[in-house]
Design goal:
The protein is mainly alpha-helical. The protein has one domain. Helix content is 75%, strand content 1%. The protein contains eleven helices and two strands. α2 packs across α8. The longest helix has 45 residues.
């Protein structure tokens, strides 16, 4: 499976998405809107290359410039989408789940409209920016990109457990009221955490377009899958790596199954059905994980409310000795 970079691209895509959700989760924000933010990043990455495809930038340094500009454009789009999400959730204190789902629908619709309007009914491809970084045909570059992502894991750990901002972010996620009493600005650290997450969303957008090559306005559920990976890992970095690799291998097995010819004729006739079944696991599992996460959270809230409403038994007076 490692004779091509596809499995590493999927690992990088899922890891980046899960790490982006991790930053929001540590300040108590359930970033359901990660799918819409990923769509915004992919659109920003591809639209610049699409609009400049006939500009005649053929020199090597211009190709480098186009790639850098595409990444910056993707990052700006992610920042705008994340800031808008943060405004509704942090400032207006709206329901995180409803805001996230609404953002996913709206950004997917806007990106689809933009893609098929600008492309005259055709989806965007990777754009001229891919002429500089051809991940699919240059395996060492993929390996280098994944290496940088792996290096970020100990840096993230040190940030959350060794630095003052990281410790405060984790404290806000555990007990925001206790942190607020100390005079710490909660909204500042919430916005800081969402801002740091934009770097990983941008990286995920780059991995997505290098793996899929085409963009039709949808992130194909990778954002939801990244959220499910975070919930499965219980915010542990090594488990994020493990589950990202697990789902990436499922994708790779399904892709290999679709192009493999078997000696058994019945298996050849039905291999497309098995491929779709394997791919569906990547969406069925996140669905049940989110349902289970919501059920557990609701159970804990009900338990806390029951404890608060439970009448306290009066203390018995001490018996005096004769």
């Amino acid at each position: 499976m490692f004779d091509n970079p596809e499995v590493l691209l999927i690992i990088g895509l899922l890891m980046s998405t899960a790490l982006a959700v991790l930053f929001a989760e540590n300040v108590g924000i359930i970033n359901i809107g990660i799918e819409g933010q990923l769509v915004a990043g992919i659109f920003g990455y591809t639209v610049l290359g699409f609009l400049t495809k006939d500009a005649g930038w053929n020199d090597d340094y211009l190709k480098v410039l186009r790639f850098v500009l595409s990444v910056i454009c993707a990052w700006i789009c992610v920042i705008l989408a994340t800031s808008l999400f943060g405004f509704f959730v942090i400032e207006l204190r709206m329901d995180q789940i409803l805001v996230g789902i609404a953002f996913n629908i709206i950004f997917t619709a806007l990106a689809t409209f933009g893609v098929y309007t600008l492309g005259n009914g055709d989806p965007f491809n990777g754009g001229p920016a891919n002429e500089f970084v051809e991940f699919r045909s240059s395996f060492p570059l993929v390996l280098f990109a994944i290496f940088l992502l792996f290096v970020s894991l100990p840096l993230i750990y040190n940030f959350f457990f060794k630095t003052k901002p990281g410790i405060r972010i984790r404290a806000i996620g555990k007990n925001a009221n206790a942190v607020k009493i100390t005079g710490i600005n909660l909204n500042y650290y919430r916005y800081l955490s969402l801002f740091l997450a934009t770097f990983f969303v941008t990286l995920a957008a780059i991995f997505f377009i290098q793996y899929q090559s085409l963009f039709n306005g949808s992130a194909r559920g990778y954002g939801y899958l990244g959220l499910a990976i975070l919930l499965l890992s219980n915010r542990r970095l090594m488990l994020i790596l493990f589950f990202s690799s697990f789902f990436a291998f499922l994708y790779q097995i399904a892709n290999q199954l679709a192009v493999t010819n078997f000696d058994w004729e019945w298996l050849n006739d039905n291999k497309n059905s098995f491929t779709e079944l394997l791919l569906s696991f990547n969406f069925i599992i996140p669905l049940f994980v989110m349902i289970g996460y919501g059920a557990i959270k609701r159970y804990r809230l009900n338990s806390i409310r029951a404890q608060k409403q439970k009448p306290k038994t009066p203390l018995r007076p001490n018996h005096q000795k004769n």
